[in-house]
Amino acid sequence: MTTLTTPTEHEITYRLSAADRCDSCGAQAYIAAEVKGSELLFCAHHGRKYEDKLRSVATSWHDETARLIEAG
C-alpha cells in the first residue's frame, strides 16, 4: 500500500541547492532568472544588484532569498 502525502502550507520545496552557484561571483545562488531561454543564477547580492534590469527582460524570476532569513 502506498500512502501519498501532499505538502502542507508550511512545507516549502526549494528548487535551488548549494550546488547552484552565482554566475557573477560563484557564491550560492538564491535567484534564478530565465532570459532568452537561458537560466541565469545569482546570489542574493548580485540578484538585487541586477534585478531592475533583469526583470524587464526575464521571462521568469525565481527568488529563494527568504531562505537566508529562515536560516538566521
Strands, helices and their partners?
Layout: E1 31-35, E2 38-42, H1 44-55, E3 60-63, H2 66-71
Antiparallel strand pairs: 1-2, 1-3
Highlighted features:
single chain, 72 residues, alpha+beta, 2 helices, 19% strand
Provide a quick synopsis of the model.
With 72 residues, the protein is an alpha+beta fold. It contains two helices and three strands, in the order ββαβα. The protein has a three-stranded antiparallel sheet.
Return residue spans where pLDDT drops below 50 for at least 5 consecutive residues: none
Instruction: Tell me the total number of β-strands.
Output: 3
Shape: globular
* Radius of gyration, in angstroms, nearest whole number: 15 Å
One letter per element, helices H and strands E, the order comes to EEHEH
Class computed from helices, strands and strand pairing: alpha+beta
The percent range for helix content is 25-40%
Strand ordering within the main sheet? 2-1-3
- Per DSSP, what share of the residues sits in E-state strands of 2 or more residues? 15-25%
The major beta sheet can be summarized as: 3 strands, antiparallel
Number of helices, where a helix is a run of at least 4 consecutive DSSP H or I residues? 2
C-alpha end-to-end distance: 40 Å
Mean pLDDT: 87
